[in-house]
Structures are given as structure tokens and as C-alpha cells.
Design goal:
lyase; 206 residues; 8 helices; Beta-carbonic Anhydrase, Chain A; alpha/beta; globular; Carbonic_anhydrase_sf
Amino acid sequence: MPTTLTPQQAWEQLKAGNRRFVDGTVDHPHQDAGWRASLENSQSPHAVIFGCSDSRLAAEIIFDVGLGDVFVIRTAGQVIDDAVLGSLQFAIEEIDVPLIIILGHDNCGAVTAAVEAVQTAVMPKSFMRSLVERIMPSVMAARSKGVTDVNGTVEEHTDQTVHRVVDTSYAVAQAVKEGRTAVMGVTYSLSDGSVKIGDILGPVNP
């Protein structure tokens, strides 16, 4: 069954979970055998978290949630491709997820590679080039605002991805337009575990 949470309620749950994580008072909810068995035939996650593949950034841990709570999509540098868009469409159209979090983090290797490519005019080889090419528009957008450091560029890239998801996916755009879903940019701090809110499209007050 679809979740009955509003976008605001979904965010409040994630925000509370991150607060517990930062404070060291995590609950580790929905990780027992009984809960696992209850999810065998259906799922109703209350958020999509589209984030970076970095090993230091585990969405379920930093928001203190468990099995069935979040629908997680990960690529290096949270780069959008057809598989990501298809996954987002499934989450919106099939399971009515009310919130999409675009999750970046400081000291991101993929964003660092893109920033260095702009600075040196040397592109990485093979498939890393594809990643950098997809992040490059965010690097240029950051530079147009006078931002040249990696962490500032990460924040810009996260915000740019919020808008790109809505611009690219008809399913997400319709859900946001109708108030069924919100899309939020969030940047995670590797040092203290906190999150910083960026751009928001849809009915959420951070």
C-alpha cells in the first residue's frame, strides 16, 4: 500500500532520524525479523534518496531508518542517467513516494574530478569522463556565482540536480505540480553527520 505521509511529514521523519544520528541516540528502527517478514509482498517507503555512491554516505544510517522506509538510488556524484530516471518514475508512479531527497556530500570525489577538469582543461579517461561531463554544468553554474571550491560546488551540484530531475522527468514534475511530491537538495557533512538544506521544489518547509 502507498504511504499516507505528506511530503512534509516524510521530511520530518528523516530530519528527526538525522538528529538522532548526529546526537548518537539512534533507534535502528524496522530492522527486526518480524518487520522484515511483513515486507515480503509489498513496500511503501516514505522517501526516495538519490545520493552519491561514496562508501561514507549510507542513506539508511544517516537518517536512522530501516527496511522498507526509503527507496535508495546511488551513482557516483549523484549523476542522472536513464536508469536513475526510470527508478524515480517507478517510485513516483508505482509506489507514490511523497518525497525525493537529492543527497550530496562534502569532499565528493566525482565533483572534485569535475572541478579539476575545469581547472586543468584535462578530462579523465574512459567511463570517468562520462561522470565528469554530467557534473560539468554544475561546475560552470557554481563558477558563474563565484564559487570555485569543491564543497561549494557540491552544494550547487545538489541544487542543480533538484531542478534537473524535475525538468527531465515528467512523472516527477507532475507529482510536484500536484503537491503529491517534493524534491529537496540536501548536503551531508562527513565530519559531524549533519545535513544542510538546499533548493526545494514542492510542499516542504525545512
